[in-house]
Amino acid sequence: MHRYLAGEDDRRRMLAAVGCSLVEDLFISVPAEVRCGELALPPARSEEEVRREFWALAGRNIAPECTASFLGAGVYRHVTPAVADALLQRGEFFTAYTPYQPEVSQGTLQAIFEFQTFVCQLTGMEVANASLYDGATAVVEAVLMAHRLLPDRPKVAVAGSLHPDYRAVLDTYCAPQSLTVITVPADAKGRLDATAFAKAVGNDVCAAVVQSPNFFGVVEDLPALGSIAKGAKAMAIQAVAEATSLGILAPGGAFGYDVVCGEAQAFGIPAAFGGPHLGFFATRQAHLRQLPGRLVGETVDTEGTRGYVLTLSTREQHIRRAKATSNICTNHGLMALAATIVLSLLGKKGVRDVALASHSTAEYLKAGIRGQGTGSRVKLAFPDAPTYNEFLVLHDDPDGLLARLKDELVLGGVSTTRFGAGLPRGFLVAATEHNTRQECDRLLDALRRLA
Amino acid sequence: MSEKRALRQREGLIFERSSPGRVGYQLPPLEVPPVDLATTIPAALLRGEIPDLPEVSEVDVVRHFTRLSKWNYSVDEGLYPLGSCTMKYNPRINEEVVRLAGLAQLHPLQPEDQVQGALALMWELEQALIAVTGMARVTLQPAAGAHGELAGMLMIRKALADRGEHRRIVLIPDSAHGTNPASAVFAGFEVVEVASTPEGTLDLGAIARHLEGGDVASLMVTVPNTLGVFEPEIVKAAEMLHERGAFLYMDGANLNAFVGVAQPGKMGVDALHINLHKTFSTPHGGGGPGAGPVAVSENLVPYLPVPMVENIGGRFTLSYDRPKSIGKVRGFYGNFGMLVRALAYIRSLGRDGLRLMAEGAVLNANYIRKELEGDYHLQYTGPSLHEVVFDDSLQAASGVKNVDIAKRLLDYGFHPPTMSFPLIVHGALMIEPTESDGIDELNAFIAAMKAIAREARENPDLVRGAPYGTPVRRLDEVRAARQPVLRWQARKA
Amino acid sequence: MANPSDRLYAKSHEWAQLKGGEATIGITQYAQEQLGDVVFVELPAAGKQVAAGGVLGNIESVKAVSELFAPVGGEVIAANGELEAHPELVNQDPYGKGWLVRLKAAGTPEGLMDAAAYEKFLAEESH
Questions:
Q1: Domain that residue B240 falls in
Q2: Is the model's pLDDT at B8 over the cut of 80?
Q3: Do A218 and A382 contact (CB within 8 A), yes or no?
Q4: Domains in chain B: how many in total?
Q5: A319 in contact with C, Cβ within 8 Å
Q6: What is the CATH number of domain A64-80+348-450?
Q7: Chain B residues with beta carbon closer than 8 angstroms to that of A118
Q8: How many angstroms separate the CA atoms of A116 and A282, rounded?
Q9: Which of A29, A87, B259, B478 is the one with CA 20 to 30 A from C55?
């Protein structure tokens, strides 16, 4: 038998109790025509053999931890406290299910309530859900919610400076809904062109989507863009890909936005080659009934003790079925818990310090690149634009340059060639409090020599 | 009845632990010049310190979340017989390998030559899922089962459009999980519900009648169905659909019942999602993350989401050259962290172990069914595979409902079964033990259920007032819905 | 609670009280019992036109949503604004303070039952 299964004697006794001589008899209802033979897989492996196989697979990758890494474009490496993973590995948290039986799930439920609170505090919004899959699908859910609230408006105005993956996913989801997505381009300064935006957001637009900081790392003029959207009575949606930016940047909630949503991976969630990450979604109380995803609410038990439960479930698929606000069931609960733990540890001071340190580190790099003078082969794409912790550097052969940097164990950035032909040729450089001065100087020095 | 004595502290919200000046964290010293924000970002775009974020120490955080954890029931603690959820053991070797340097912090946008191991891993998992399902290819991109359903339905929609057809209807049995109709609608279809037969299975006559209209794109079906019964006519249903140019989508939530025994590829299934957090042991995490890869037949391969991992003579690449693809359904490539865990599990069990897993799941469910048949009512009496659906109709005579039985079971130290699903069984109690437990744990559960059945007859008020021994008593869900309080707020002075 | 005789009843368990060309609509005692505690009621805005048998709105309990059907057609004059803060009125007083919608009735009601016929219908349904 196997270490994850019951034993031979268990089997024998249970077979006797059900009155079968062979386990095969239990599958009598499975017709012969659908049966399969032995699976084309290797035999069972011991733990040590599994370890060896995965060590070998891991060894064929370049681990960013072994380099000076400045990769961003939607996934950011911040310093993570040791305590976070230690708590996450408690079996009571990660082997528990969705808290449908609240009396034995108060740990999960209370942690989600705390997560919802943190998201409201960070975004300046009134209500937040228990998590979505990632930033891309969070933006999609916001747009679909806008369409439910404004069903007679078939268009969506989207910033051209939105993360290309977020845009790609939005296109996939909008196609069957007969929603037309219009792109409003960024201007020469890397910011959304406000005039073009005003033109695009007419009274046939249900949702106006702005990312800030945007895909190029540039901080958008949220108040101006929000006014334009509200003026047209469209839903103003702010997308956030680098959630630590909310430590120093005013969120959409301060400017009357209807939704602030996006990706919270930056709060201590491992890059993990792209997932699982953490979608967050916050909106106004007025839109509560159209909010997608799970919600945890406070209540009391029969003895008046405070407790928490999943609530307003009639919005969701298991009750509303075809008319649900979303089809989401399993969300990203454990990642929400991870972010809640990290946010608790960072607290009021830490959330700000992380943002200031990340911003300062990026500014140091920008100054260093500017300082290389007009003769340099690398140039800031938007030298005058305000950025948070990421910026676009122009170069005519970004892939070649980045490969040379990699040979010196510097992962200098993400080439824009990864995202198709429409973007300026260069690479996005992201910095966080994780990057030391020494690493920064290595990057600047390598750029000087190798560009 | 098992008595539980535990030291349990009352613990408030993390915000209520806050005390000015406490810090939980120390950053490394800033070695670059600290920036004066006034010089880099326009003032109108800045914010100050967020006033009500908590100030707690690292010790506060450890105490807080450790105490919270002790209020949770979990698979690690005991049997978790939630029907349709497959709450099996979550092996720790999976947790170890996913945290390896070289996997944990890998950035998805590192050039391919830097991530050959990760791509190889994804390709290996795809091959393993092909071996299990007998399908042609598998996308690993969807983040959950419902997400996979959406991807599958979008592929079907695209395949039809490719033929110049725009069929509007998806047929869904009344026993289906709520995500099925929700996903179909999000994919732009209309849902037509098909009533099940008196045996709780697919009504082929009804399906045939709907197919005559020529507007049916697909049938969505769960196999075995949500009663735990194998659909005896699944092959016939597939043939009927294909004859009319329609597709068969399978909800793979119940795959644990027949891995190594049968294959969807042989049933005529065109697409199915696989819940890695069910059949393949990735942890439920208190509500995710999961992963919902979708396996497809040859005719749907062109429509798979981009990118797909290709193996060209041992060199792995992400292929975006898929002109008929439905596009992307999420950022990057998939919930890689869950893919790692699932592959480690498949390697741990191996070809024989996976079959033993399904056999164990079915045997455990049938054992429970046999032992409880006399105590609880069984509406549908066809052979059960990995789950059995009882209902509360015998107990209803003394005013005890399924929710009361569930709450009383908490006092006996077990998580209750799934309640009130499928919708075709009133007062349902869906029990899926999985293969993880041996006869002793199952006997303890059976004894608890028998005791509650006796209590329902002899002392129904006791059952209706349960639970008594949990960290909180029964919670007022009506109040939570009528007066929603969805966040903590600082009390205003 | 007996079903009041001054109104008509639909098979979908709504009642309609007709007076001077206006119809006040609510759900019956049986309906509120079946639903359980009402947590939210979604009602139409004034001016909305609805056909007899058409969907007026939704009533939600914790675990279920039920559609509300119009026993008579017409134009909505008002919805019961008190229910936003006090949805429990539907349970406590379904024939009085728990009324749902008032509309300008269009045409004569068809297929509705009087109180006695409704009670008979309920008795038959429960078998």
A1: 94-348
A2: no
A3: yes
A4: 3
A5: yes
A6: 3.90.1150.10
A7: 53
A8: 8
A9: B478
A contact test, residue of B14, B267, B445 with most A CBs within 10 A: B14
Give contacts of C91 with chain B, Cβ < 8 Å: none
Q: How far away is chain A from the Cα of C113, in angstroms, using its nearest Cα?
A: 30
In chain B, residues with a C-beta closer than 8 Å to the C-beta of A90 are: 65-66, 69
CA distance C5 to chain B (A): 31
Which of B313, B296, B186 minimizes the C-alpha distance to B252? B296
CB contact under 8 A, A30 and B262: yes
Q: For residues B428-448, give the mean pLDDT.
A: 97
Is residue B5's pLDDT more than 70? no
- Tell me which residue of B238, B255, B256 sits closest to B247, measured CA to CA: B238
Interface probe for C, chosen from A314, A318, A320, A323 (most Cβ of C below 10 Å), is A314
Q: Inter-chain contact C40–B420, Cβ cutoff 8 Å?
A: no
Q: Is residue B488 part of a domain?
A: no
pLDDT tens string B331-388: 999 999 999 999 999 999 999 999 999 999 999 999 999 999 999 999 999 899 999 9
Q: Which chains neighbour B (Cβ–Cβ under 8 Å, 3 or more pairs)? A: A, C
pLDDT at A366: 98
CA B66-B71-B77 angle, to 5 degrees, is 95
> For residue range B32-87, what is the model confidence (pLDDT) as tens digits?
999 999 999 999 999 999 999 999 999 999 999 999 999 999 999 999 999 999 99
Over pLDDT 90: what percentage of chain C?
83
The answer to whether the CB of B287 falls within 8 A of the CB of A99 is yes
| CA B435/CA B363 separation, integer angstroms | 8
> Which of residues 7 through 46 in chain C touch B, CB cutoff 8 A?
37, 39-40
pLDDT at B1: 40
Q: Which residue has the higher pLDDT, C111 or B105?
A: B105
What pLDDT does residue A317 have?
A: 84
pLDDT at B6 over 90: no
Neighboring chain A residues of C64 at a CB cutoff of 8 Å? 314, 319
Domain definitions of chain A by residue range: 1-34, 64-80+348-450, 84-340
CB pair distance less than 8 Å for C40 and B481: yes
CB-based contact B481 C63, cutoff 8 Å: no
- CA of B298, closest CA in chain A: separation in Å? 18
What CATH number has the domain bearing residue B121?
Answer: 3.40.640.10
The correct answer on CATH 3.20.20.70 for the domain covering A84-340 is no
Tell me the two tokens of residue A282: 């916050």
| Residue B399 and residue B339 share a domain | no
What is the spatial distance between Cα B162 and Cα A214, in angstroms, rounded to a whole number?
35
CB within 8 Å: A108 and B72: yes
Judgement on whether residues B43 and B112 belong to the same structural domain of the protein: no
**Contact A208/B at CB under 8 A:** no
Nearest residue on chain C to A100, alpha-carbon basis: C63
User: A97 and B415: CB-CB below 8 Å?
Assistant: yes
**A154 and A206 Cβ atoms separated by less than 8 Å:** yes
pLDDT level of residue B3 (50, 70, 90 thresholds): very low
The residues of B whose Cβ lies within 8 A of any Cβ of C are 420, 477-478, 481-482
Report yes or no for ipTM above 0.95: yes
- Indicate if B366 and B344 belong to the same structural domain: no
Report yes or no: A313 at the C interface, CB cutoff 8 Å. yes
The model carries a pTM of 0.96
